[in-house]
Amino acid sequence: MPDMTGPTGATSRPERGPTLRRTWSAVIASFLGALVTVGAVAIGATTYQQALFARTTTALEEQMAAVIELELVIGDVEDPASGVMYAVGGPEQYANQQAAYAEVVARMDAAFDNLEAELASTGTAAMLRPARDAWEDFDADLATAPGYVASGEIFVLLQAGNDPFNATWRDLTDARRTLTAVRAELLADLHVSIHDSQIMQRTVVAVVIGAVVIGLLTALSAAQRMRRRVLRPIALLQTAARELHGADGFSVELGESVRELGELGLALSETAVSVRDSQDRLRDQALTDDLTGMPNRKAFGQALHARLADPTIDRVAVLFLDLDDFKDINDTMGHAAGDQLLTVVAERLRRAAPNGAVVARLGGDEFAMTLGLTDDPAIASRAALDALEALSSGTVIAGAEVDIACSIGLAISALGAGPGDAEELLGNADFAMYTAKRQGKNRIEIYAPGLLGERPSRAELRRDLSGAAARDELVLHYQPVVDLTTGTLLGAEALVRWDSPSRGLLGPGEFIAVAEDTGAIAGIGAWVLDRACRDLAAHPERLGGWVSVNVSGAQLNDGGFVDIVRGALTRHGVQPVALVLELTEAAAVTNTELAVRTLQALRALGVRVALDDFGTGFSSLSYVADLPLDVIKIDRAFVADARPSGQAALEAIVTLGRRLGLVLIAEGIETIAELDRLRGHGEMAGQGYLLARPMPLEALTDQESLLELATKS
């Protein structure tokens, strides 16, 4: 087969040849033909030989039996014939001998008739005629015996030594001899038949051996064709595949082959051209983020290594950027809207980056920027401020106004740092970004080991937090809620803690943000709900009349959340009215319509709903009117504000809540002055460090101390 690539790299169609199916069919047909031939010849010859031998031996056996029968009858003739001829016993004995002789004569005639019939179709039949003639002569001579006996002549002749029946006995002896010759002839025929059978067997063996040889030759011929048309082309294709990424001018020359392999060789040549054309594109794609067109994590790592290895650069700065509450956008508006927002963020970061900076998307909602610093390290801080400002204005996504917020961590390498410090530098920026989220989000935090201490990276927190509930590392602390007028313990708020083996006891502010970003919040929330119901059922005297549990936006937007709540209540036998679900305004307004439906379904169960941190979020008054609420928890900002304006705002909130028939709970009561001001607004519940800090269930035993503080004037 000629070379499949021309001078311009174009491929030509392979010459037509036998197809693989046809080649295989020929091989199989040849082999099956040989097998059928061998089988047919062997079976036919063996069957014929067996049938012929059976017929021959059966006939010879029957003939031999007839001869033997006739010989036996001749032997039986002698005694009665002798009595008839010599009348040895007188008249009475003569009569008996004559009757016996008559019976033997009948048997003799029947035996001769049977033997003649058996030998009628053989060459031995002619030999029987003299024997029968001798017998008939014997029988005729015996008919003269009565005359000799009656005249007494027989005795005279016998005394003279002359037996008149000598010739008669010779006739009988001749018959016997003739039958002996017939038997010898039959035995000879039997030997011939056995000899013929042996010859036939040797012939069958020879035919089978010949057929096997023919089959082997056919198989060898077929194998040679397969090697030439299939195996050799396959080996060439394997070699060609290994050379696929080789130099230009790649081609596959198969020689003689089946049509399918020829077409495969052509396809391989065409693929080689396509692969070479796409290799550059693949290299680019391996370093580019598909969504934003920015460098990806791998490309950013290469750029960071290059800057750390550049001797003209004194220090290298890394900015680690992570969008705040991006998961809410995905959950409420869909991933398409989230992708659109990421594209907007990428474009703004590109425009805000200083000259020479490399901006990359690391994955998800994480971005990074690296730049070399020569004279002024403050360039890195300005770059972080520019990025934060560029993202501060909102954008329209899917027809809705969306705010953009971002937490930024900044880390700067030490003098003399090299490429081996790249991973640590990026990790420091990641930790600084995580710290920014812990301290309120939408801000910049600069990594400073002496100030921040050794803390795990957010990636480590994500990894460890994913299995915290399954490892039973989560615990609940409870903060009592009391009636500020009577001092009665009303209930308690369940607050989750993470008892990390490597970090100690962590409060929610140290890991809840990570849980929300990773989606682990749903599992943690379900665990908190179940454990709070269990504790309330087991120790109602310690928790008062109800327990409240915080609910995230992800849980509220989960279509199965109502079933999760119902299951926890049923499992532990808790009355629905004894469960209060707290949600923030931010969680409620991410998808108001879905939130309202979920809350209505929960209230239909009998569960009560509380709005947490009221007054600090969105348009609080309108949402109080829209959402199906039972409780308002007044934010500490209003509790602590002693100014007249602050007290007026607090009075407005209290008035609104009472007119709507809602229970009011003041949060964050830390001083007696704050407690007194709240009591001045009438009947109200409250919680805070002044009354009791969050504590394990086992510590909620001494109620008198906190009640005394709650009623203190």
Q: Which SSEs are present, and which pair or pack?
A:
Elements (H helix, E strand, L loop, with lengths): L19 H67 L3 H29 L6 H18 L2 H7 L1 H7 L6 H77 L16 H28 L10 H13 L5 E9 L2 H8 L1 H18 L5 E6 L2 E8 L4 H13 L4 E3 L2 E3 L3 E7 L9 H17 L5 E3 L2 H4 L5 H8 L8 E10 L5 E12 L3 E3 L5 H7 L2 H18 L1 H4 L2 E6 L1 H4 L4 H12 L6 E6 H5 L2 H14 L2 E7 L5 H7 L4 E4 L1 H5 L3 H16 L3 E4 L5 H8 L5 E2 L8 E2 L6 H8 L3
Parallel strand pairs: 6-7, 9-11, 11-12, 12-13, 13-14, 14-15, 15-16
Antiparallel strand pairs: 1-3, 1-6, 2-3, 4-5, 8-9, 8-16, 8-17, 9-10
Helix pairs in contact: 1-2, 1-6, 2-3, 3-6, 6-7, 9-10, 10-11, 16-19, 19-21
Description:
With 713 residues, the protein is α/β, with parallel strands linked by helices. The chain has three domains: 21-216; 297-455, Alpha-Beta Plaits (2-Layer Sandwich); 475-492 and 520-710, Alpha-Beta Barrel (TIM Barrel), CATH 3.20.20.450. The protein is built from 26 helices and 17 strands. Helix 22 (620-626) links the parallel strand 13 (608-614) and strand 14 (631-634). Helix 6 runs parallel beside helix 7 (259-286), helix 9 (326-333) runs antiparallel to helix 10 and helix 10 packs antiparallel against helix 11 (378-390). 33% of the residues are buried. InterPro entries: Cyclic-di-GMP_PDE-like, EAL_dom, EAL_sf, GGDEF_dom, HAMP_dom, Nucleotide_cyclase, Rev_trsase/Diguanyl_cyclase.
